[in-house]
Amino acid sequence: MKLCDECGINQATIHLTQIMQNETQVSHLCEECARKKGISVSINDDPEQSQIVDNDIKIDITCSECGCTYAQFRAKGWLGCSHCYTAFEKEIDALLTQMHGSTVHKGKRYTDHARTPQALTGEIKRLRHELAIAIKNEEFEQAATIRDAIHTIKQMGIQ
Amino acid sequence: MTQHREKAPTISNEPLPIWCDNSGPESDLVISTRVRLARNLSRHKYPHFADKKERKEIFDLIADIFQNRKEFHAFSVVNCASLPEIDQQLLLEERLISPDLLKMEGDRGVAIEDTRHTSIMINEEDHLRLHSIESGFNAEDVWYRINLVDDLLGHYLPFAYEARRGFLTSCPTNSGTGLRVSFLLHLPGLVLTKTIDSVLMGASQMGISTRGFFGEHSEVIGHLFQLSNQATLGACEEDFLKHTRTTIAEVINHERKARERILEEAALELTDKTYRAWGILLHAKMLTTSEFLNLASALRIGIDCKLFNELTIEQLSRLTMSIMPAHLQKLYGKALSDDELQSIRAQTVQQFLSTLKGAKKTRTTKRTVKTPANRTKKE
Fold first, then answer.
1. Containing H/E element for B109?
2. Are A107 and B237 an interchain contact pair (Cβ–Cβ within 8 Å)?
């Protein structure tokens, strides 16, 4: 990972390409030094126009974990690692809104204690109880669905 | 090119893949329902960015769970890196893996459950792609099954997850739930009545995208369309399933109405189309997969509309699976060039169809003998 050309302390996450009189100059800066130099770190979302801020200055952001740059992501469509979501937070959120109309997850919650084999044994018991009720009420379609669910869990080796 | 005179292979009687055995609800129109969940491991680079060594590490870590945890005893792991190309293609034709998995390099593969309902791809675009598939219009059962596998895997593997953005994926189009429910639909009625574009446009406005037979970037052949939800973030899994299901039910309704209209206004034309397809299949000397699928589509709608009874849907599905390139080469026992494949395919189809015709004739004769009128005559 490259260090900032200016301060030499922080990691360079902004890569600046300046084209002056047909000569290309590349400098690697940390976000703080880039701001000091008056370079805006916001990114244009249009891939064609991407990273062109003004005066032929191109900037890019790099994920400090995997080295994936925002330009790479826009060109290929793949992020490098989970940290990219933090590194390109503002840009990704804009994309998520555009793609899904939302940036907030409302689905399944993942915890380290996702359904365990033990919890599934409990679930079989609950399903067996529901099955008995469905049969008693002559809800046979419902009973068949529950029976299939029990079968699915049992297929996973859980009794 | 010279015609192949070797004996065409006989089609096996092995059970059909679950998704095309026509056992599910509304399977005359909805070939299959598939639910996919995209998951990644939190402390690893995503497959496209990980180097060979890291991809191996990821593959081994995941494969170990399937090989050594008793909950996954029904799964076996296949590493595509050491699998002959023909076997890779077989998995693809059985829809147990995606074309994108084969484009990846190094250790990548799939854990397949013995009933072949569920398969988990390792190191495709995401570290894990959990799939479950079922015949017909059946999202609830498929979701129940894949959700269970996801819970158990999540117990052993640290998934990349944020409370706000949900499950994190290599491409943000899948973030959140990582859920995609896709229905493979046979829609010849909408194509023949030229209403397909407007129906698919309507579905697209409801957030449903259309793809071809083999998913992303594949073309539509044999009037087979794969319809699935576009958004994966901002609602819970059950709501995405319900919404997609409702929209697909509308599409099914349009297809049924289109078929009714054809039967009212152009039954003869449709019968003609079906029998022409039958004629080509009986006599062609070369057949490509797409040509076969297009002709099979004409037979399928003929059978569905009860205009044609020379073969059953089950027989047609069996024939379709057998003539796919890798299946045919496996059946034939050696690798074939494109031209050879086309020729062998035509011969295989003819051999299968003529056996049916023979069987049908025998059955008809037997029935004639058994008629009461006949018996009276003999007596």
1. strand B109-113
2. yes
